[in-house]
Amino acid sequence: MTMELTPESRLAAHCELAQQTRDLMDAVALTEVKEDELLAVTAELAALTERLRAASRATPLPFDISPDGNLRHLGNAVIGGANPMALPLVVEMDGLTARAEVTFRPLHEGPPNGVHGGISAMVLDHLLGQAAAAAGFPGMTGTLTLRYLRPVPYGTPLVATAEHTRAEGRKSWADGRIALPDGTPLVEASGVFVMPTAWLGRHPGT
Ligand SMILES: CCCCCCCCCCCCCC(=O)SCCNC(=O)CCNC(=O)[C@H](O)C(C)(C)COP(=O)(O)OP(=O)(O)OC[C@H]1O[C@@H](n2cnc3c(N)ncnc32)[C@H](O)[C@@H]1OP(=O)(O)O
Description:
By secondary structure, this protein is of the alpha+beta class. It has helices at about 10-30, 35-50, 115-135; strands at about 65, 70-75, 90-95, 95-100, 140-150, 160-170, 170-180, 185-195. The model has no long low-confidence stretch (mean pLDDT about 95). Tetradecanoyl-COA (MYA) binds next to helix 3, strand 5 and strand 8. It is an enzyme of class 3 (hydrolase).
């Protein structure tokens, strides 16, 4: 795991750029402007893309330690504030559990008016993984099993939760769900996380 020392002000500016890009992606998905305006905006975006490529990294921002002392991963596709692909999810960890409030956007559409099943899977994969890590068993997803109970709406505040259930050697198990605020489950997940041998010794208890 690489730790980088980047000034907080630059990281904050990067996160603002990512948020502006999310707003842009939402606007692109929903725009109804005329064709000539689409072409004009596309040309402006191409120029902006080249400006950002003037100095570029090979990989997104890695794990680092935030000023509050917590491990963070600004480049992550689910929680990374500096990654425009990320929602980004803010995950609260408590003992064996992980919890995040999530409001999907039209950008996440799979079936008409509903969230793509792969997007739900991505969120649950991450939540389960963080629950396993919270319990002291960080690992790579080995197997993820999902049960889609009801369509997942976008534009509605939802709650994603997960809990570590057991561990055996390098393997750990976690369960989770995306639910309406009243607790009605929409998608349930179970996962097996395997700590790669390369990680052994890097975490307490391994
Ligand atoms: C360090 C700090 C990190 C902080 C993390 C913050 C949390 C972030 C949260 C992010 C969350 C998002 C995370 C992501 O998105 S992770 C990205 C998605 N996942 C991957 O890319 C994983 C790719 N696969 C691998 O790297 C390897 O195959 C792994 C590491 C999984 C196992 O390769 P390894 O060579 O180590 O395996 P082994 O053959 O010695 O077997 C060992 C044991 O494991 C059992 N097994 C093996 N494979 C599977 C399987 N597929 N399902 C169930 N069980 C499996 C096997 O039976 C055996 O059990 P036993 O016979 O001993 O009983």
